Amino acid sequence: DGTIQSGSAVISSTTPTKMNALSTATKLLTRRATTTGTAIRSVTTLQETLASQLPAKQTQLATLKKEHGSKVIGQVTIDQLIGGARGVKCMLWETSNLDPEEGIRFRGLTIPECQQ
Prior knowledge:
acyltransferase activity, acyl groups converted into alkyl on transfer, alpha+beta, Citrate_synth-like_lrg_a-sub, Citrate synthase
């Protein structure tokens, strides 16, 4: 059926792989402690959360590539590639950065810069 599984990673040519790492990393982890009647709040930043998850994801990807790197999961023509990958079962996304002062940035550019 076009599905390849390695450990907990699954790649399917019919259904896009859902990655929980990004949604998990975007949530700020909060811990509250009370010392002498004062609440203390510590927050793990997104960068720290991603940095802690990356080694495991890199190992998982390397294992998947080693075990299944040469397997074919579909066919793509040059016409499909040039035509915006129409009919190709895949998922691609670009990461962005949200700054509370500047707003969102895509590939380092603000929205007004993207509009130029």
